């Protein structure tokens, strides 16, 4: 396998459930689809978040000096490097938290591991028998 340069990033963030759909819509508007013929490709699931706002903060939820525990949704998706800045700016603009904890993880596309379309088709046929 040749060493591929990361050109795709996995983004993760926790968000209050009531902001999830709007955040996904806003992100989708500023990025080119990763997957041909599909857009708005996100994964999300419920999580618990916890934090303590300190003096000088302006929390969306919680009180200064008190530990807050809240139901949130974990949102994850992939973005092309060329769209990364626009996506992160959009997330910061549409996320209700003063300091959203946004994870940005470099990834290597699976298509760079199995280089040609013909190889991928052979791989799919051979791996299809693994489940039987």
Short description:
The protein has 132 residues and is of the alpha+beta class.
What do you see in this structure?
It is a single chain. The protein has 132 residues and is an alpha+beta fold. It has a single domain (8-131), classed as Alpha-Beta Plaits (2-Layer Sandwich), CATH 3.30.70. 31% of the residues lie in helices and 27% in strands. It has four helices and four strands, in the order βαββαβαα. α1 runs antiparallel to α2. The mean pLDDT is 89.
CATH first level: which class? Alpha Beta
The percentage of residues in β strands lies in 25-35%
Structural class: alpha+beta
Low-confidence stretches: none
Number of helices: 4
Fold blueprint:
Elements: E1 8-15, H1 17-30, E2 43-51, E3 68-80, H2 84-94, E4 103-107, H3 110-113, H4 117-128
Antiparallel strand pairs: 1-3, 1-4, 2-3
Helix pairs in contact: 1-2
Keywords:
132 residues; alpha+beta; Alpha-Beta Plaits; 4-stranded antiparallel sheet; 4 helices; 31% helix; elongated
């Amino acid at each position: 396998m040749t060493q591929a340069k990361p050109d795709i990033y996995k983004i993760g963030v926790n968000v209050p459930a009531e902001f999830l759909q709007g955040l996904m819509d806003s992100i989708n508007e500023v990025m080119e689809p990763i997957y041909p013929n599909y857009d708005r490709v996100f994964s999300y699931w419920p999580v618990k978040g916890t934090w303590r706002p300190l003096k000088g903060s302006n929390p969306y939820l919680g009180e200064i000096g008190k530990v807050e525990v809240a139901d949130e949704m974990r949102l994850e998706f992939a973005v092309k490097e060329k769209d990364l800045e626009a996506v992160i700016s959009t997330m910061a603009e549409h996320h209700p938290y003063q300091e959203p904890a946004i994870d940005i993880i470099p990834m290597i596309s699976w298509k760079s591991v199995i280089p040609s379309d013909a190889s991928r088709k052979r791989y799919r046929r051979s791996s299809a028998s693994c489940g039987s």
